[in-house]
């Protein structure tokens, strides 16, 4: 009984933190009007209804040197686990409403997560362009827009533009690229006994190798049958236990460098 009360208090605190962070940035469509906490109806759901919020939007305006690499980052919180899409150019509001969600995984449909996406623009164009981060969770949508522009003293340098075109024609693959993890969860809350999938999507040339470390920084290599790393880089955790609480680290490595992220997993005790 004491442990149940402690877990319930922890859940309220964790969800409270999500809600507080969710008030800071981004625009949402079809905001929920009622309490987000699940009560009574379905004890297998952490959140009573679909909910999504952009908790860290990319800068409204990004200035760069033409031909340089630009990285935009967007963080979305919600339940069920949100998906993130990037749209280039202006897009009518009804398109955002009608976008079909590209679900990361159906293994943890009731989880409350914070997901981060990075859009890497190699050889950024000298012309002004707009990019919109769209977070989608069930029937709810949130979005934030950023404008990418060239630095004023570089915008009209034809030599730079010509060099970029020639470089691209001679080397279409873009040459070697350090690994970068571009989609991952920073936090996941889910009921004990559930199966969860932690994404770790990467880019890089040569293609990065991906491996995971558990909460004790041990390499996940089959010693724990409940943990399994997919060829796509996702980590599957079956039958989530209290001992799984902590940070799981994804490492992406190629011949040039490595990139790492950590997902904090918080198992929640069902009140059944």
UniProtKB/TrEMBL annotation:
Cross-referenced SUPFAM superfamilies: Immunoglobulin
Signal sequence, renumbered to the chain: 1-26
SMART domains, per the entry: IG (SM00409), IGc2 (SM00408)
Keyword line: Disulfide bond, Immunoglobulin domain, Repeat, Signal
Record Pfam families: Ig_3
Superkingdom classification of source: Eukaryota
Domain Ig-like: 52-149, 179-262
PANTHER family with a match to the protein in the record: CTX-RELATED TYPE I TRANSMEMBRANE PROTEIN, DPR-INTERACTING PROTEIN ETA, ISOFORM B-RELATED
Record protein name field: Putative conserved secreted protein
